[in-house]
Amino acid sequence: MRTFTIGDIHGGFKALKQLISKLDLTANDTLIFLGDYVDGWSESAQVLDYLIELDKSHKCIFIKGNHDVYCENWLKTGVKHHKWLFHGGKNTITSYNEYSENQKNEHLQFLERMNLFHVDNENRLFIHAGFTSMHGPYQEVYESNYTWDRTLWEMALTMDKRIKKDSLLFPKRLLLFNEIYIGHTPTTNYNISEPMQGCNVWNVDTGAAFKGSLTALNIETKEFVQTDPVYLLYPEEAGRNERPHKEVEKNI
Predict the structure, then answer these.
(1) Strands, E, within the chain: which ranges?
(2) pTM of structure
């Protein structure tokens, strides 16, 4: 019995299929997806189709990301948020060109029932971005922090390793969980193509939206499986690489 947590997919259906085939899953394995299933490559709707079917045959837990919130709002209201369009929403809308209203509604319901975070029996937290409350995500004031916060990762990544857990200086947020798994901030921002660890926080977004791969991390062994760099699977597309990476990250 294995548990894999999977980073941001961003419409890379070909990468998702490649990753699942590499995992050689059994019926006893669990998949925890960290969000951002849509926006970027051209097959966002197809990614959601695949995940809906995968959930019927395997134990899956789906965390909601900020891009999924944008897509959910569009499916619900028809409103196209300008920032969403700038950051991959156009390709997501195009991926729905041949979809009926019933199919769109099925995707809306799938997005609506996703978890904002998940805590397992070993007190491990799975969340797309982070949380700011020192009392934990259950007492977060602003729900958007679950899908947008970067301060948790930045704190864990840059913290002085000489500070011990029993010190009054040790961040209270990091003491709440044995381990924390996130996506949202690509490790390729730091010129690293693999999952990164800061304190007890593991970042599994390895830049599939840009020039990186899609990654599944075994949370017990910390071994990981990766696809080909996703942009190589879509040679006719620019995806979110249409604009310089730093410009994209600065605005989202």
Answers:
(1) 3-6, 30-33, 59-62, 117-119, 124-127, 179-182, 196-198, 201-203, 215-218, 224-226
(2) 0.94
